[in-house]
Please model this.
Amino acid sequence: MRPDIDQPRLAVLSFDIEEWFHVIDHPEVADVGQWPLLPSRIERSADTILELLDRHNQQATMFCLGWVADHHPGIIRRLSDAGHEIGCHSYDHRMVHRLNRLEFREDLHRALDTIEQVIGRRVTCYRAPGFSITAAVPWVFEELLRAGIGVDCSLFPGTHAHGGIPHGIPTAPCVIRSGHGELRALPMSTRSIAGLDVATAGGGFFRLLPLTVLQRWLQSQPYSMVYLHPRDLDAEAPIPPGLSPWRRFRTQVGRRSTAQKLDRLLAEVRFFTVKGALQQVDWGTVPVIDWRSSA
Ligand SMILES: [Zn+2]
Model:
């Protein structure tokens, strides 16, 4: 996709459905056995998301953790019953590039089995925790295809704290060619600002950036991928203990205003689910990324 002036804009809306304690790579909240003992905020913050989307008659793709589907199946069912697309966000939020191929396969199948059992439908799109698909996992798309996943929304074109791919990935829809066939990919929309690779409409950047900047970017970019978490809209959600001051700031900033910002954008922008976006793209003209594993 080129930023042609007459090209229709494509704005995808997605949420990663996880708890406040599902922060990446933080030892204080890494023990899965302790998670059921921590206070849950997911039902309350997912309600906020459901109400906002319902108010504006918009739909989104919800990348769900298998763990959440196991422990709070009702909320996943409600998201699905409200017409939102359900995707997979792994079982227990481990970074992909820290897993070997077999561990990844087991995690993926456990997550898919759990989520599909809850919603009664197949899941065909995936987002890795923390954008942790990197060149270190050449087998990852083969595994996704073998599990029935045809669309990936994990790629972060640029440098990211827990992953990202600095070169060779467009900030636009593309095709990934793996050793087991091709997937369609909707990467994050990013841009480089003063040497920092910024997600133009997601997570901490969405919370940090003024509404006017988000509006301008969403209205001018040919392609945008909005991604948020329930905790991004929950000012009362606890902050995991032991975070560095910088990470604490990044985790907390803008939580009080995020729901209002999203409310405004939902009134102004027509968003697509991942499934809806696939129909808007001319797949014969997008870049093809070679990601073949020699394994
Ligand atoms: Zn996540």
Remarks:
- The chain has a mean pLDDT of 92.
- The domain at 10-24+39-290 is CATH 3.20.20.370 (TIM Barrel).
